Structure formats: C-alpha cells, structure tokens
Amino acid sequence: MIAGVQTQNLIWRGQTISSVCSPPLSGSPDRGAVLLVHGFGASWRHWRHTIPALSAAGFRVHALDLLGFGASAKPPSHLPGDPPLEGAVTYGFDLWAELVVDYCRASIGPGPLQLVGNSIGGVVALNAARLLQEQGTPPAQVVLIDCAQRALDGKRLAELPPLQRWSRPLLMATVRQRWLIQGLFTLLARPAVVRQVLAQAYPSGANVDGELVDLLYQPSRDPGAPESFRGFVNLFNDRLAPDLLAGLDLPVRMLWGEADPWEPVAEARRWAATSPCVRELRVLPGLGHCPHDEGPEQVNPILVAWLREGGTGATA
C-alpha cells in the first residue's frame, strides 16, 4: 500500500470500482487534481512511484481501477451476436471513458483537472477528455505515457502485412470463443509468464520486483478476469488516439520510452507532427512501455513540471 492514500470502493452502474486519492503533502500548495489511468492488466497500484511524487508536489492525486481490472468488478463480456447474459457489459474505450467522467463528477468535483494515462489508459484519458470537452468542462491537459496505438484495430487493417489482413476474420472468430479464451488466459495468467512479459516491457530491468509481479498477477485470479480479458482482446473496432487527438482543443503532452517494444516511438512522432493539440513529445532512451514505473526518477520531474504548467489554466 502507498503511504497516505485514501482508498474507496464506489458503485458505478451496479459495479464496484476501486479507487484511491492522495491529498497534497502537508504544507504544500493545492495545485489541483490529477487523475491517473492505468494500462492493460494493471491497476491504480501501477502508479506506486508516481502518486507520492505528485502528492509531494502539491497535487490531489486520484487513481482508479478501470472496470474489469485490478480490484474493480469484472462482469461478463458482451460482444455483438452474443446471447443475452445477465450483468454483461460491452468493454471498450467508451465504457471506460464514461467511468472516468462520472468518477470526476462524483469524486473530484470542480476545479483544475488533468488526466494522465499509460498504454490503453492513454486512449481512455483522451476519450474522457473528449466527453468532458463536449460537456463544456474540458480538463486543463492530458498527458500520455506510451499511449496504445492499437495496431490490430480494423481501421488500421490496410497497414498490416497481407497475411495478417487475410487471417483477420479467423482471428476475430477465434478470440470470441469463451472456451478458448479461458484456456489461453489460464496459460498466460501465471507469475512466470508475467515476469517474461515484464522483461520485454521493462528493457532496463529496473523495478521489476515482487510487488510489481503481484499487482499484475493477483487480479488475474478473480473469477471474472477471463471475461474482461475476452472483452479487451475483441476490441477490433474502437477508438484510435489520432482520431481523438484531432478533436481536442486542449494541450496534450506525450512521454515515451524509446525502447518500448509494443508502441513504436516513430508513430508517436507522427502524432506529434500532425496533431495541433500536441504541445510536446519527450522521448526517454533505454526505457520501455511503462517508463513511469521503470524510471520514475526520470519521469516524475517531467510530470511535475508539465502538470504545474498545465494546472494554471482551465477548469473542469
């Protein structure tokens, strides 16, 4: 547990959502609220090195476990064509963004608000910013950390090699099968496999410890975890970051691990060059997909500086 955080379970659309808030360190000025949005397979605990640093800098730091992840509820997944199933939800970036917006309304309230997202949490943060902007209460800023590029989405199909394009219908038909997903999830949700994935995601090896393995592995033991996994791996037609960036009229800054094995920095540079809302892209050599956890001593000073600058403007 991170020292000083206040934990809370909320009920959202009948489902339990786990969240935390860390107030500004005693004696620090209140610089407004920051909401941290985790990536795939993670939880608010993945911000273990970020929350204390931002709180010490004077921010009210909020973080939550998206529906289907961490300690939040993991209801059954519903895909197009599925028979009705009581309590099932359609996992995706609209559902998660609506959760973030409702959380901001209920638990953060008015005042300066900034969003920070890692991996798929970056897409969620962008989509939540879109909704808040449409409601007339945009966040002051969005910070993306190795935002998911979603190369397998159908809207990017033309960019894939011919064999992958040809095999797409078979892949889509296969991963919607519950029996197969259950077996695949059982194979993947093991500490040894988690460590293998982390060896790719954290190329420097820094901070790959027992706490990190535990925070990723333990939620996978929940009975509903295979269902949320099924919902995620079937997101073949959902939100893409460049489309969301094109519709935003607020500052976006991007932080990227240059050695990210899954989200190439070249694509991030393209976003920065073509999206007027992107104010800055900072690339960190030697770090991978989760630089906030792998190299917090490099990331935290950048985040604090960006958030201090962003917190001087808009309200939410």
Summary keywords:
12 helices; globular; single chain; 8 strands; 316 residues; alpha/beta
How does this model look, in words?
The protein is an alpha/beta fold. Helix 2 (93-108) packs across helix 3, helix 5 (178-188) packs across helix 8 (225-233) and helix 6 crosses helix 7. The protein has an eight-stranded mixed beta sheet, sandwiched between helices. The protein has a single domain, classed as Alpha/Beta hydrolase fold, catalytic domain (Rossmann fold), CATH 3.40.50.1820. The two termini are 29 Å apart. The model has no long low-confidence stretch (mean pLDDT 94). The protein is globular and about 55 Å long. Helix 1 (51-56) links the parallel strand 3 and strand 4. It has helices at residues 51-56, 93-108, 120-134, 162-175, 178-188, 191-201, 210-217, 225-233, 241-246, 265-274, 291-294, 296-310; strands spanning 6-12, 15-22, 33-37, 60-64, 113-118, 141-145, 252-257, 278-284.
